[in-house]
Design goal:
Blueprint lengths: L2 H6 L14 E2 L2 H4 L6 H7 L17 E6 L5 H4 L10 E6 L5 E7 L9 H12 L3 E5 L5 H6 L9 H18 L5 E9 L1 H16 L6 E5 L5 H11 L13 H16 L8 H6 L7 H27 L18 H8 L3 H17 L4 H8 L5 H6 L3 E6 L9 H9 L3 E4 L11 H12 L1
Parallel strand pairs: 1-9, 4-5, 4-6, 6-7, 7-8, 8-9
Antiparallel strand pairs: 2-3, 3-5
Amino acid sequence: MPHFFRLVALLSGMAFTGQLLAADIDAASYGYPLSNPFEATLATTPVELRPSLPDDADIDQDDYRVKLRPEREFELPKNFWPVTKMGYRLAKQRGEAPLIFIIAGTGAHYGSSTPEYLKKLFYGAGYHVVQLSSPTSYDFMTSASRFATPGITREDAEDLYRAMQAVRAQHPRLKVSEYHLTGYSLGGLQAAFVSELDETRRSFNFKRVLLLNPPVNLYTSISNLDRLVQTQVEGIDSSTTFYELVLEKLTRYFQAKGYLDINDAMLYEFQQSREQLSDEQMAMLIGAVFRFSSSDIAFTSDLVNRRGLITPIDYPIDDGTSLTPFFKRALQCNFDCYLTEQLIPMWRARSDGGSLTQLIDQVSLYALTDYLKSSSKIAVMHNADDVILGPGDLGFLRKTFGDRLTVYPLGGHCGNLNYSVNSDAMLEFFRG
């Protein structure tokens, strides 16, 4: 993935008597420097405010692959063979240690920047760490998903659970004292469903589960992100595309700087320069990244299931076939389009019909209300200014989690996960 898009992808009191109150962090004492939620989502935290983490050279880690869906070798075109086995990353401590699973956010690979950051944070604290791709990533869809049509959260959780069991089976000599679970953005929602599933399956008996910036109403969060790409941006017309405008700004920024320096801190520095993006430009950039993820989901799901909506059924695909025309077609399909054309028809065929409202309730945190209220091992960390939240979402979290909810005043969507204050709070939660 080009560096620019990799960096952009850094993107994912109660009124009831007797109920413990959520921890609302005071804005004045919090110290996070970015008050703009779009800027926080894209630029995350300045380097000097991040925790000290171990270097890759000091981590005993490797990438592994496990076969979960052997039939995919025959269902997929031959040039998809690298993703017919599920890949994951495991970082191992020297002796017995607790193990934590990390579920990536929408469309994200297990090796993307946020899982990597969380891996280093937990590894440095003495945990074995397993990084898993999102069930909405093309590699998980092709290698681990039974139906390759993500969005039915309970089914996505079952796929994740089988993947976790396969990971453990592949490392029988790894000494694990206890299991923990976390996920960010969509991965946070899925972690809640995985935890509920484990209450009956009892393969892991997760000791603690942390949901980081999860969607409450999945459809609301998706709609919020889809709308961002429709933002009206000054300077864009029939002759200048949005990407040309952003790249021109980046070019001028690096010319003024005198050298090319692309790293995780670049976007923060860029936003302090004269070339900084406006709110509208940042909103469209976030929305565009989500649109790419949605298109990837629609393309992969259609191809694996031979639905013929994007790639014609029986179209010959090999190493020399250009997939560009099909991806361009997929880009015209936002998540609502994927929902209407692929997810809902599959769900209705397998569940004897049902309305969109029923589907939304089944795939959102609402479906687990009673479990989440009663399970003391599950906590949530969220931001009051998160762009994926809708009206009433924080109220639901307060009512459901009580003092197991921490609300930070700033940070946008996952922008403050690598802030030292948040990092310390995560470690404190898992240490109990």
